[in-house]
Structure formats: C-alpha cells, structure tokens
Design brief:
- By secondary structure, the protein is an alpha/beta fold.
- It contains 10 helices and 17 strands.
- It has helices spanning 29-41, 56-75, 152-159, 178-187, 201-210, 231-238, 255-264, 317-327, 331-338, 340-345, and strands at 12-16, 18-19, 22-23, 46-52, 85-86, 89-90, 98-100, 105-107, 123-124, 127-130, 166-171, 191-194, 214-215, 243-247, 270-273, 303-304, 310-312.
- Strands 1, 4, 9, 10, 11, 12, 13, 14 and 15 form a 9-stranded parallel beta sheet that branches.
- Helix 7 links the parallel strand 14 (243-247) and strand 15 (270-273).
- Helix 5 crosses helix 6.
- The chain starts with 11 loop residues before the first strand and ends with a helix.
- The relative contact order is 0.16.
C-alpha cells in the first residue's frame, strides 16, 4: 500500500470509555457527544462508548446518557451520522477516509485543507458493557465491588429498555452461571466478549461454545499464559474463529508480545481497540490549521493511578495503528484491524 493511497473504509473503536477529560461515567449526554467529537476529529468514524462496571442503577444512568447522545446525533443537521458503508464505499455525501502511513494520518481530506466543516464526530453505534458479570480476581482497573452474579434476573435489570443499543457485553466465562447467561445474551443478538477472567483453556472454550464471540483486551486483566495451562490467552490465540481485542499503545503489551499475536492469530480476527479513558490525552481538536495533528512522542504517557497501575489506553486506534506500521507491521493487516475486522465482528 503506497503512501499516496487512501483507504476508503471507516474505522471503528469498539472499546473506548472516553478521552480528553470526558468519559461514560456521566449522566450528561453532551459529555458523550464531546467524546465522539474528539475521536471524530482524529479519524475515528464510529465508536461503541464502553460503560464501566458499576451498580446496575449507575450503569443504566450512564447507558441513558449514551442513548440520548445517539438520539441527538440522529436528529442533528449540522453533524449528521456517517452514512452506511456499501461495497462501493459510503453512500451519499463526502467519503470519510482514513489513511495510515508511516508519516501521516488523514481524515476526509488533505490535512492542510481540513476545517470544522470537513470532519464529523464519530457515529455512536451503540454500547459496550464492560461488566458487571466479571471475576473480582481479575478486576484490572475496574471496581471489583461492583461485580455481581451472572443471573438472568440481574441481566434483565441491567438491559431492560436498552436491548436495542447494547452491542457487546464482556463476561468472565468461568464464574458460576456464566455459560447459561452467555447463551441467553447471544440468543438476544448481543455479542459476548470474554474478559476480566481467570478462565482456564477449557473454561474459555466452554464460553466460546456457549456463544461467546470475542475476548476483551487479550493478555490484560486475565489469567496469564502458562506452558501447562495456556488459559484464556492461549485459547484466544489459537482458536481460529474467536475475535480478540488488542490494545496496541506503548504500555499494555510488549512489542514482542504484539509480534507473537500477529504471527499466531488469524489476522482477520484481530481488532485493535483504544480502551481510552477520560485521562487519555488527545491532540487538539479543530478548528486549527494543519488538520489532524500528530501527537508528539514525548506526550504519550501511560494512564496510571498513583501506584503506577494502568487505568486505560494512551492512544486512539488510529494513533496506535500508525505506531504498529512504523514498527514494521503490515499496513494492510493493521488497517483491517480497525476497519474491516470490527465491522465484520459487529456484522455491519
């Protein structure tokens, strides 16, 4: 793929909590719209705002904020949603393009011509719920006190009235009752992704056979790979059908771990995600001269708590994809990881 080639395919981030001071821990839909604005200005076409595990009532309040943001996007005339993608490209209006090379990222037009009229906020496709049916021993940056039993009663309390916009739910497959709930959720047409999990290989395999379709941020917040028990990581790498999320910023996975993933896994089943959070820095948003700006390397910092524990991703999916290409990964493969692969995963 040459430097002058533009990839006419929309990028999708299926796992983002927020960016630039805004996130999904809110009841204000304008905060969600601000996340969409920032990510849209950086070349991300579509997003699934990801709800943190919390009490069911709090998660529902956050989910309502996303629904209201989606409604506002749908009724807006100044920032219309992106048109559906067809085989021949987006229908109607301007083409929204992402170009990823070792030198530059572009959104819509050449960056020196970009103005506030030339970019649009990321379209909100729906919701990703990261919890609350997770394993407390693998809570990661989430609050283990919010994790609850994976029962149909709890699921109904969580989803009632939001079934139409929830696209993905992350569940730990090894906890009691999880397999039954995975079947129930899958039968509803919602994707189950396995994560925040201490699952063995056989437990992850059982989750897959129950209907799980993906693994949430592989290697992170889950049982480590061991030569006598490969666990959920080993299952994710060698199973040819399950999708895996990969956080490809400089802090979540060692470069050789990334190399292992791309050498081992079916590349059509790899989805690069940001797992970005409120504290994730973002480049300046338009209006400004020069369009989509490149983040200086010295300001890409790990998002951690006071003890140095990672709290979220530090790059957008476009930035981390550019990073991988610069490291020598195949450009076509990487581009598919933020365009074709998540679209196929969501069956769009």
């Amino acid at each position: 793929m040459g430097e002058i080639e533009v990839i006419q395919m929309r990028s999708i981030d299926i796992h983002t909590h927020g960016i630039g001071g805004y996130d999904t821990r809110t009841t204000d839909e304008n905060h969600i719209l601000k996340v969409a604005e920032i990510l849209g200005s950086q070349g991300i076409s579509e997003i699934l705002p990801t709800i943190y595990s919390s009490s069911v009532n709090e998660m529902r309040r956050n989910m309502m904020a996303v629904r209201k943001a989606m409604e506002k996007q749908g009724s807006s005339t100044c920032s219309p949603p992106h048109p559906p993608l067809s085989k021949g490209g987006p229908r109607g209006g301007r083409k929204r393009c992402v170009r990823i090379t070792n030198k530059i990222i572009e959104n819509n037009y050449r960056s020196d011509r970009l103005s506030t009229a030339d970019y649009r906020p990321s379209t909100i496709l729906g919701l990703h719920l990261e919890g609350p049916f997770l394993n407390p021993s693998k809570c990661g940056a989430l609050d283990a006190r919010t994790f609850i039993e994976p029962s149909e009663k709890n699921l109904q309390k969580l989803l009632e009235g939001f079934e139409d916009i929830v696209k993905i739910i992350t569940i730990a497959p090894e906890i009691k009752g999880a397999s039954k709930l995975i079947r129930k959720i899958s039968d509803m047409g919602i994707i189950v992704s396995m994560g925040h999990s201490d699952a063995t290989f056989s437990e992850a395999e059982a989750g897959f056979h129950a209907g799980a379709k993906g693994i949430t941020h592989i290697f992170n917040a889950m049982r480590s790979f061991h030569h006598r028990e490969p666990g959920i990581v080993g299952f994710g790498l060698i199973n040819k059908d399950i999708y895996i999320e990969v956080i490809a910023d400089p802090f979540h996975l060692h470069p050789k771990t990334l190399e292992l993933v791309f050498k081992t896994k079916n590349p059509k089943k790899i989805i690069i995600v940001s797992d970005s959070v409120k504290e994730t820095n973002s480049p300046p948003s338009p209006p400004y001269k020069g369009g989509v700006q490149r983040r200086a390397q010295n300001i890409v910092k790990a998002v951690t708590d006071a003890h140095g524990k990672l709290q979220g991703g530090s790059m957008t999916i476009v930035e981390s994809s550019k990073r991988l290409i610069k490291m020598g990964f195949d450009e076509t493969v990487i581009t598919d990881c933020i365009t074709k692969n998540p679209r196929r995963y969501l069956q769009k």
